[in-house]
Amino acid sequence: MAGDRLIYNDPVVRTQSDQWIRAVFCDRQNLSGGVAAMRLTSDLWVKALLRRVFQEGGFAAIERSGASEAGVIYVRVRRRDGLETLLGPAPQSFFDTQKPSDRKFEPRIVAGEGREIDALLAQEAGFDPDFWVVEIETDSPETYLEITPAA
Q1: Which residues, 6+ apart, have CB-to-CB distance to 50 below 8 Å?
Q2: Across the strands, what pairs with 135?
């Protein structure tokens, strides 16, 4: 029935659709104002990180895939000296806004052994199995990530 279909050119339908899109993809509290900053899905953010590392001639790999929309992301940094650093999501208190559009990381283990990091990630898997682990090889992870001081 052609008469039952919604026409996007109808101003009422367009306004309702635009509000729904903003509610789903933007800050839900900012429907009447302008478009709020959107946060990338975990899947897209990880792919962008990999591409950026590869573009600069580095190595990166997805060690563990998590929830594509909003999985927590851990970054395992392998250094040339054989030690590793694990970076995890920074607490919400490090952000200026209630719903941040970017991702910040804080060190969880600095210059540790691989088995220490494996143990911490195994513990995290018991709590929340939908997290990502991205491995990069670099001596300066701050080139690719915003890193806050450890709490």
Answers
A1: 60, 61, 62, 134
A2: 61, 76
Within 10 Å of residue 34's Cβ, how many Cβ atoms?
7
Going from N- to C-terminal start, the domains of the chain cover 1-36, 42-147
pLDDT tens for 110-142 read 999 999 999 999 999 998 899 999 999 988 898
Looking at the chain, list the stretches that DSSP marks H as alpha helix, in order from N- to C-terminal side: 11-25, 42-55, 114-127
132 sits in which H/E element: strand 132-137
Architecture of domain 42-147: 3-Layer(aba) Sandwich (3.40)
- Integer angstrom CA distances of residue 82 from 74, 75, 121, 139, 148: 19, 16, 19, 11, 23
pLDDT in tens, 52-64: 999 988 899 999 9
Token pair, residue 49, equals 């990180």
